[in-house]
Amino acid sequence: MTVSAPPGMSGPNGNGALDRIPGPVMMARGVHKSFGQVRALIDATFQVDEGETVAIVGDNGAGKSTLVKILTGAIQPDTGSLELDGTEVSFRTTRDSLQLGVTAVYQNLALADNMTVAENVFLGRVPTRWLRVDRRRMEKESAELLDSLAINVPDVRARTALLSGGQRQAVAIARAFRSGRRLMILDEPTAALGVQEGQKVLDIIEGLKGQRVSIIVVSHNLDHVFRVADRIVVMRGGRIVGSRRKEETTTADIVHLIVGTRE
Amino acid sequence: MVDSNQAQASEGPARVRRGLIRYRQLWALLIAVLLLWTYLSFASPYFMTVQNLTNIALQSSVVGIMAVGFTILLIGGEIDLAIGSTQALAGTMAALLIIQRELPIWAGVLIVLGMGLIVGNVNGYFSLFTKVPSFIVTLAMLGVLQGLAFVMTSGQTIGGFPEAFKVLGHGKVGVIPLPVIIFFSVTVVVQLVLSHTRYGVELYATGGNREAAELVGISVRRVLMLAFIASSMLCTLAGLVLSARLNAGHGSFGSESLLDAVAAVIIGGTSLNGGAGNTFGTLLGIILISTIKNGLILLGVDPFWQQVAVGALILAAVLVDKTIKGELAPGDLLPRLVRR
Ligand SMILES: Nc1ncnc2c1ncn2[C@@H]1O[C@H](COP(=O)(O)OP(=O)(O)OP(=O)(O)O)[C@@H](O)[C@H]1O
Ligand SMILES: [Mg+2]
After folding, report:
1. Does the model's pTM come out above 0.95?
2. In this complex, which of A95, A147, A155 lies closest to B217 when CB atoms are compared?
3. How much is the CA Rg of chain A, to the nearest whole Å?
4. CATH number at residue B247
5. ipTM field
6. Is A43 left (phi over 0), alpha (psi -120 to 50) or beta?
7. Mind listing the domains of chain A with CATH numbers?
8. Nearest residue in chain B measured CA to CA from A172
9. N or C: fewer beta carbons within 10 Å in chain A?
10. Measured from the CB, is residue A77 less than 6 Å from ligand 1?
């Protein structure tokens, strides 16, 4: 990871952030990304402001997951730059972005099914005491965390493989929430879920909105998008084709942008 | 949400039940070993003697040390087919340096361990950085290392270690041979690391879902590199112990150990897909194999049947494992033609 300018007084968790004028937390400028012949992202410029919840919508293959992965360092852009709190950053791996408080729940959830719920919540940042993994702390804190998110998981010592789709989603969200104090990205958090479980996840997101964390949600469900988002960004064929504040737009407008019948 | 009162009340029995389920393969294996021992002690009066049991333990030790290394790698989802060759090279190098070149023992041992470090790094480098599967990389290394062992000694056996070196293979603490103590210590220490350190958790996670491990910020390459190095270093240790025990080094020593080590690890319940397993299962697996080999000899069976037995055991263990996991219905074993 390279940080080209010092973060200054108002670092990600510094007190100075409170009196700052809300500005972009994360900014991607002119990002291109190709996979062989496929141009997944074309000149994408995108930003999320402090405390804002942005939804990214677009058809299958529009480039949403690719953009999200570039924001966390899971993949690297061919060209283009990223800024976090106004400082240019380049993430070589997700470890780099995690350290700066950026986390994601990826579309495939990225859970290790052979591990327990508690282990999955802490994966990547397992607490130790005298070199020994502090399982008691992991179990206690993950139970508390899941509780505070109103997530119902019967036993944090159960293998993740045994959980339902909604519970798995919840575990992934809890993990992201633990380290994503600056920016949390959720890639299709409700796609695999039933109506009730989907509502639960939306409740969780709305709960997060009160907590000063910026959120990016990728979703195909426009009802969900209109419920949680402050702003809606539309992608088509690898390009960002529109950005609308929720109050200024309608479902029909967004649908036209998605399918390309209106610019 | 966890109801803490309820969790507290059911803590004891639940814990026992979880233990029983989680370690069912260990229990089954332990019972299998005990049954076999009971049978053999009736079948041969010689079986239950201290001498014979010591032999079984000694036989288990050298392969066992390598099998523990194999367990680490397989948990991480990688494989090392060069374990036998690494061991053979370590033994011949020790003989070459300490006997022929008359280096001090410590210097010879250090150089051999350094070789193990290099081999581990080479295996790891090509498997993790060039995207060639470790199966292929270590198969190639199997040939390279085995060949080097023969080239360095022109295919000769070099014998006659100093007494101080032979202790490694012949020493005893009380009545227990040193190799057995080394094997047992390696088994315990490695499992403690796997179960209770951050490294262990990250290794299991990597083996379970490598992409996920990567995404949550685990340095998958570092984790697996260490596993490759551990495997090679343990093979090197096994090679030193074996050459001390045989008081000689030769390129073919330990050529059978790959089969036995893999069998022990699989019988011991380490998942072929990675992400699950432990060294105590491997320990029981190797004891089971050594017992079977020993039993065949005591029962007067042609020793060449041993390899057939071990090979068949690998297949049986995999099939049983898949059936238990529900990935294989016993009916699927019959080809469609026969089933109609
Ligand atoms: N690792 C990869 N290798 C090759 N092509 C890829 C890879 N990842 C994405 N693509 C391609 O890039 C394009 C954009 O994919 P992306 O996953 O970003 O779409 P998406 O908007 O998230 O779609 P969905 O709604 O289906 O999740 C697609 O054409 C996809 O096939
Ligand atoms: Mg996607």
Report:
1. no
2. A95
3. 18
4. 1.10.3470
5. 0.84
6. left
7. 2-9+25-109+179-259 (3.40.50.300)
8. B216
9. C
10. no
